[in-house]
Structures are given as structure tokens and as C-alpha cells.
Amino acid sequence: MSITERLANLSIPTVIITIVVLFALRYVLLKQKTPIAKSIAEIAESLAVAMGLVFLIIRPFIVQAFFIPSESMLPTLQVHDHILVNKFIYRFREPKHGDVIVFKSPPQANQDGQEKDFIKRVIAVPGDTVRITPGYVLVDGAQYNHSDLESILRGYGKSDGKVSVKLLNGEVLVDGRLVTKSEIAAAAERPNAKVKVVPGVVYLNGKPLREPYTAEDPDEPYPGGPRSFVKDEWIVVNKKGEQMVKIPKGKLLVMGDNRNDSNDARFWGLLDRDRVLGKAMFIFWPPSRIRWVH
Predict the structure, then answer these.
(1) Domain positions in the chain
(2) Which residues 6+ apart lie within 8 Å of 51 measured at CB?
(3) 253-280 per-residue burial string, b: 16 or more CB within 10 A, e: under 16
(4) 234 Cβ contact list (under 8 Å, min separation 6)
(5) pLDDT tens track for 76-92
(6) Considering the entire predicted model, what is its pTM?
(7) Alpha carbon distance 54, 62 (integer Å)
(8) How is domain 64-131+202-292 classified at the architecture level of CATH?
(9) Per-residue pLDDT tens over the stretch 250-273
């Protein structure tokens, strides 16, 4: 953690002790009655007041800086982005669909059982129903999921490393590049095969959710996925006999934009509303990434 990050995350006890020390220093220096001592005393007083304002009023109640440590919100937020979070807004309204929020994760979200600051996007709010179908490609009837496609289409990516595969509108995009069905068939070593693309879809209240902000379409069903965590009382069934999750009062469904590389509410349970800290508003560092968060 850098010096700036350490300063931004000073604990309240540390801040209070520092303020007391600064005011004590001011008191001692003012007794010296020399110009230099008076100048240093004024600086100490200014620092104490500034720390109190920033760490005891602005950070807890108005706005706070956060650091992005993982790829779970790609492409919206990148690793090492520094963002400003509005901690005031949800005192006046509830989180809405599409809001990017920071919250305290529940203990079960982390292997060490610690509560940590997470950032995800609000997908569903109380009263909504949600169902997710996974994306895949059929090559002469043989099913290829995202991990299979990442393996056979690696050569179409921007680098030799991990690639992003998004199935959208019957097409396959690898790191944003369109890969044709004939290229997919050739990569699967079935050059004359029939290829069918089935994108993963999030259904919100029975309608497909348009998600231009995601890195990939989902590759696991919800509910019913191998890693899904869903309580029985959250399950409802529609007229087609399909299971859905109905979001109860005081809960939110939050997911990462990097849909297939995100530790989110699909896997540890719906988020309690009272765990929400604020709304991500603005990327302020690095300079090349300065922009509003949408």
C-alpha cells in the first residue's frame, strides 16, 4: 500500500491522537513568543483543523477515496484506479438499478471471514425478480462455454495472455474483436461445422437486461448454478416453470461488470442494504483515467 493510500485510510483513533498532538504542539510553541515558533504553531493548528474536517466529517459522511484492487469491475473500473465515493447520497434515496456502489462485504464473502470494502453494480432491488441464463456456443451440437472459447480463441486476442470472450447478438467478440463463425469452426477443428451462438442473459422482471458495461456475458445460471448461494425463501417460479430469485425488502443483488471473474452476491448471498457505504462517482487517478463512473 502506497503512502497516499495509508494516509487516506487512517483510522479514527489515529486521527484523533494526531489532532491532539498537533494542538498540544501549538500550545507549547505559542509560549515561545518567537516569529518562527508562532509560524509553526499556526501550521500545526491548520493541519489539526484540516484533519478534523477531512477525517471526522467529510470522509465518514460526505465523500471518501477508494482504491480498486482487482479486475472484478472491468472494463468500467481498472486495477489501480482511485475513485471518489459519495457517502451522502443514500441518506436521501435508495440505491437504483445500475448504481456502482461500495459496501462492507459480509464475512462469508471472504475466505478469511473478514469484512472488506467491495465495489459492485446494483442489478436488482427489493421487489425485482432475476434469472440468469448462461452463454455458450454450439459447434455441430458440441457445447463450448466461456472457458472453452477462451482456450481455442486465444490467438484472436490482443495478447498471448487471458482473453475476454463476450457473446452478443449472435456474435462472438474476443477482446472486442469480432470472430466469425467460420473462424470459430476452424479453431474447434471442425471447419465445415454449423455454429450457433447463445449469449448469456440477465432477465430482470422477465425482460432481458441490456448491459453494455460488462466484459463478458454470464457463463453460469442463477439460481441453480454450481456456485450459487440462494435461500429457498427467495425462490419464485414463473408461468413457464422457470425458477427466479425475488429480491426481498432490505436486500440487493450486486454483481461485478467482469461478470465471470467477480466474487459477488450470486455466490455469497443477497447484500444487506445497511452494508452500503456509498455510490462510486468519479475516477480521479491516474490522470489518463479521469472520468465519471457510469
Answers:
(1) 3-61, 64-131+202-292, 135-199
(2) 15, 18, 19, 22
(3) bbbbbbbbbbbbbbbbbbbebebbbbbb
(4) 223, 245, 246, 247, 248, 270
(5) 999 999 999 999 999 99
(6) 0.83
(7) 9
(8) Ribbon (2.10)
(9) 999 999 999 999 999 999 999 999
